[in-house]
Each structure stands twice: as structure tokens, then as C-alpha cells.
Write a structure and sequence with these properties.
The protein has a domain of 160 residues. The chain is built from 16 helices and 22 strands. The strands form 6 sheets. Strands 15, 16, 17, 18, 19, 20, 21 and 22 form an 8-stranded mixed β-sheet that branches. The protein has a 4-stranded mixed β-sheet with strand order 2-1-7-6. Strands 3-8-10-9 form a 4-stranded mixed β-sheet, covered by helices on one side. It binds zinc ion.
């Protein structure tokens, strides 16, 4: 069934001052059913009346009938973007579009499951009055708030940047669930950086926005805030003097030594802005190539270069997420995963990998390119006669195999191993001549690591964290396409100390049951230190720090 959905191109304010249309249409065919709400197999909009708090009926679905082959949601006035039914449908369509961007064959090549183990992610488009928005695993939901500023009401659910950003927290939680409980600040910052880059890729994927912005900038994304500013309207409303203008800028030249090492939002900009520079160079390079090939002026090839460049960049930054080792990760772990994904994509063209290395060094994420070395494309005797189908399907067989071949996973000899659900993915690779599908087995193994908690009473003296390894195996050739093993040193440990110390001092890190409310549910603002014994703790729900506007 084909269905047409409206979606905001940017946000109400930004669209107006750029002289663009407010919304564009988006057609989908792959959902098994649609219900009023909107509700589908994996998403459900739950709307409440801001005055009474009562549940509001959701937008009504009109299926195709007679000569009309396209279904749609009936809106009282499709041009009134502030009407409750439009806000419901827009939040829904933007989340769905974001989800598809991750799952496409030229990206992850697999459906993403939610981390909370239930079929539907709930979308609350008018969660209450507050200048904020967040994803919350415990309530299976995305919560979008609204607030009054400058004589008007700002709905975060009407900002494509904000909805795509929060949706990607939920999606990333399904891909790398350990990050939600991580206490390495860079693990949380990675969540934030991916969410901002997803908002950017949504902007690049809009034909209307691409055309208007490239015309206004003479075909360059080098210094266009239309693409590089995340959540413009929201930022302006919070700071009417316009000093901020947006919440975060991907043009920020900031380096690791210029931000507090334990503040995830500030840290995230080092990574996201660094990757944006790689995207800028890719766009410039593709433009020059198309100018040479076609003889056309730069402006006229800039749209095509951005379309192709976006596809390339998107497949790298999202595929790298499947390659991350389980547990705590650093920006360098993520950088290695991007390099491995690019190596698989273009084994003979080192250009983008070189830009990545330069940017990671310039931003002081690593001090030399040797720290970004990653093992790709090699043979291991254990895999040559392994039954990959059985390894994919049987936890027991997978555990037995991993335990038997610890060297293959880079796992220590004396620790108990845990195997994660294996992934069977089929990714599409594009070449000049066409495309080719490659089937990969993604096999993750994790183990516990112990270190001093760095905290005084009432916290235990030791903390337990998760480390691990990811192996990506080519189903056909049995060669290892990438191996990524957690690499943590003294610096990462002291970063964790700093984060937990800051949270404990602010009263945000609470031991055991203190992090629960009277109703037994986790307190919204708290990060929980689970007390495992007198001497041992483990931190949970640090991702609470990732609200659009952080608390504490
Ligand atoms: Zn966020």
C-alpha cells in the first residue's frame, strides 16, 4: 500500500526566512498497515491535550479506495501546521523517514529493533510545556515539548532537526544498547554526535532544501548555516538576542583540548564538526570531478555531488555503528569503525580515509594515525570450516566458538564471555558499473572489566564496565572484513572518574534504590549506580544526560 505523508522541510521560522515552502511530501510503500494516530507496526503517536491532559484522538487514516491508489491521513486543514493533527502526522513521518535512512540497503541493510524489547516506539508530540525534547528507554518513548517565546508557541515536534535528532537516539539505542549505560563521556558524546549528524543528513536528503541552499551559497556547503546549524528556531527562541541562533553548529572548529572532557554535549561537537569537515571535502572533491567530466559550471553539478556524497557519507557513519565493539567506546573506536566501513566500500580509494585521519589528528582526538589502525580483510583458520548459519542462529554454538577462539576476538583468556545476538546483514555497494550485495555476519562478544570507582562512600570502591569485540565476516569468502576490539587506557578511566564525580557532586548519580521514585520507577533525572556487592557497582542510565537541554 502506498501512502503519502507530509513532512516539515526545516522548522517554521527557518523555512520562512529562507523563503522556502514549509512542507514536502514523502511516499512510503513498505509498512504492512496504517492505523489512526498515526500508528504502524513500529511507531505509535500518543497525543494529549495541553490544557486538560486528556488523550486526544489521533489523525484518521484514509486507505486507498476506488481509483485512488494512495492512502493518506485526513487533516482538518493541511496548511495549518500548528493544528494538533498536523503536529501528530509530522512527528510520525519525520521519525519514520529517519528510521528508513538507517535501514536502507546502502546503509545498515537490516531492520533495527528497539532497545526496550517492545514492538512500538511511542511518540508524544505535545508532552507538556518545557523547552526540551528527549528519548527515554524506560517509557519506550520520544517526548517533544513546546514553549512560548516571542509571542508565539514553539513546538519541538515541528522541527525536523529536533525530531530527527531524538529519533536517532532511539534508533542508535537499538543498534548499540550499551551506550545508554556507558560512563565513558565519549560514549555518550557519540550518541549526541550521531543524532546531530542524522539531522544534517535529513537536511541533505531534502531536495527542496538542497536546491534553495545551494542556490543561495553558490553551490557550497562549506559555510552554510542552513545545513550546519542544528535546531535553528529552537536556539533563536532560547536566545532572542540571536547570539546563539542555533543550538549547535557543525562548523565549530573546536578541538579536544578546548572542551571539558566529561561534558557529552560539548565533546560531541568535536566529533560531529570533524565529520562535517570530511563531508565538506567529499562534496568539493565530487564537484571538481563532475566539472571535469561534464564541462558544466560548479553550481550546476553541486546538487548531484551533494546527493552522491550524502549517500557515501551516510553509509559510512551509520555502518560504523554496527562495527563498534560492545560496551564503552571512544571517538577513536568510532573512527576505526568508520575507516573499516570505508575500506570495505572502496578498498582502492584511500582519499576519504586520509581526510578522516587528518581530521581526527587536527581535532586532537588521536595524536597519530597509528592510533586509528584497524584490522580489515584477513583470513583466520577458525572461520574457514565454521558453519556461519549455525553461529548466527545458536547462542550455544556462538558461545562455544568464541570461547574456543578467544584470539580471533582479542578477548582476554581468563574472563567469562558473553555473546550478543548475531546480525545477518546484506549491504549494497555501488560501483560505476552497478551495484553488488555483500552478506555479512556481525558477531559481537563482550566481557566485564574492573577498575576503581573513584568515588567515596556510599558508593562501592570498584566499578564494573563492559568491553568487547566485533567481528564482521564475509559470508561468502569467510574472510574477516573488520575486527574491532575495545582499546581503553588510563585517559579513558580518568574521563570516567571525572564524569561520575561530577554527577555524584551534583546529586545526579544515586546509589541503588535511591534512584527510584516512590512508585518504584526510575527517577527521570537520575543516573543509577547499581550496587552489585559491598565492593562493586555498575552505572545505569547515563543517557539521561542527553536531553536536548541537559539538566544539572
Ligand atoms: Zn541528544
Amino acid at each position: 500500500m502506498k501512502v503519502r505523508l507530509p513532512t516539515m522541510i526545516q522548522d517554521p521560522l527557518t523555512s520562512r526566512y529562507k523563503g522556502m515552502r514549509l512542507q514536502e511530501s514523502f511516499y512510503i510503500t513498505q509498512e504492512p498497515f496504517f492505523l489512526d494516530g498515526p500508528v504502524t507496526m513500529r511507531l505509535a503517536v500518543v497525543d494529549f491535550d495541553p490544557e486538560t491532559g486528556a488523550r486526544v484522538p489521533g489523525a484518521r487514516f484514509v486507505p486507498p479506495a476506488g481509483d485512488r491508489t494512495v492512502g493518506y491521513y485526513a487533516l482538518a486543514n493541511p496548511y495549518d501546521i500548528y493544528a494538533p493533527d498536523f503536529i501528530q502526522v509530522n512527528a510520525f513521518s519525520t521519525v519514520l523517514k529517519t528510521l528508513y535512512m538507517f535501514e536502507e540497503a546502502d546503509t545498515l541493510g537490516r531492520p533495527v529493533a528497539w532497545a526496550f524489547g517492545a514492538p512500538q516506539l511511542l511518540i508524544v508530540p505535545r508532552a507538556g510545556e518545557w523547552a526540551n525534547a528527549f528519548y527515554e528507554r524506560d517509557s519506550h518513548s520520544l517526548q517533544f515539548f513546546y514553549f512560548d517565546a516571542g509571542g508565539g508557541r514553539i513546538y519541538t515536534a515541528l522541527s525536523r532537526d529536533i525530531v530527527a535528532h531524538e529519533a536517532s537516539h532511539a534508533i542508535l539505542d537499538g543498534i548499540a544498547p550499551d551506550l545508554y549505560n556507558a560512563c565513558t563521556p565519549q560514549s555518550l558524546a557519540l550518541h549526541e554526535a550521531i543524532a546531530d549528524l542524522t539531522a544534517l543528513l535529513m537536511a541533505f536528503s531534502s531536495h527542496s532544501l538542497r536546491r534553495v541552499v545551494l542556490e543561495q551559497t553558490g553551490g557550497s556547503i562549506r559555510d552554510s548555516t542552513a545545513f550546519s546549524a542544528v535546531a535553528e528556531e529552537f536556539g533563536r527562541a532560547l536566545d532572542p538576542a540571536g547570539r546563539i541562533g542555533y543550538l549547535r553548529s557543525l562548523l565549530d572548529p573546536v578541538t579536544m583540548d578546548q572542551v571539558p572532557r566529561s561534558e557529552p554535549h560539548a565533546l560531541s561537537v568535536v566529533l560531529s564538526a570533524g565529520l562535517y569537515q570530511v563531508m565538506v571535502r567529499l562534496h568539493e572533491w565530487l564537484k571538481q570531478r563532475y566539472v571535469r567530466e561534464t564541462g558544466k559550471p560548479e553550481l550546476s553539478v553541486s546538487g548531484r555531488a551533494l546527493g552522491i556524497g550524502t549517500r557515501w557519507f551516510k553509509s559510512l557513519i551509520f555502518r560504523a555503528l554496527d562495527y563498534l565493539p560492545p560496551g564503552e567506546v571512544t571517538f577513536a573506536d568510532y573512527g576505526r569503525a568508520v575507516l573499516a566501513a570505508d575500506q570495505a566500500l572502496f578498498p582502492d580509494n584511500d582519499l576519504l580515509r586520509e581526510w578522516m585521519r587528518q581530521e581526527f589528528i587536527r581535532r586532537r582526538i588521536v595524536s597519530s594515525s597509528a592510533q586509528l589502525a584497524v584490522e580489515t580483510d584477513f583470513e583466520h583458520p577458525a572461520l574457514l570450516d565454521a558453519d556461519l548459519q549455525t553461529l548466527a542462529e545458536s547462542d550455544w554454538a556462538a558461545y562455544f566458538f568464541a570461547n574456543e577462539h578467544r584470539d580471533l576476538f582479542g578477548a582476554p583468556m581468563n574472563v567469562p564471555l558473553r555473546v550478543r545476538p548475531r546480525l545477518d546483514v546484506t549491504k549494497r555497494y555501488y560501483f560505476r558499473e552497478g551495484s553488488r550485495d555483500v552478506r555479512e555476519l556481525i558477531f559481537k562478544v563482550s566481557w566485564d572489566h574492573y577498575e576503581p570507582s573513584g568515588l567515596g562512600r556510599p558508593f562501592p570502591a570498584q566499578r564494573q564496565i563492559t568491553m568487547g569485540a566485533t567481528l564482521a565476516v564475509d559470508w561468502e569468502t569467510r574472510r574477516v572484513r573488520a575486527r574491532l576490539v575495545s582499546q581503553h587506557g588510563q585517559q579513558e578511566q580518568s574521563d570516567r572518574d571525572e564524569l561520575l564525580d561530577r554527577l555524584a557532586s551534583a546529586g545526579l548519580l544515586l546509589p541503588g534504590a535511591y534512584a527510584l521514585g516512590f512508585d518504584g520507577k526510575p527517577l527521570r533525572a537520575a543516573v543509577r549506580a547499581e550496587i552489585m556487592s559491598d565492593e562493586l557497582m555498575r552505572v545505569r542510565r547515563t543517557a539521561n544526560l542527553l536531553h536536548l537541554i541537559p539538566e544539572g
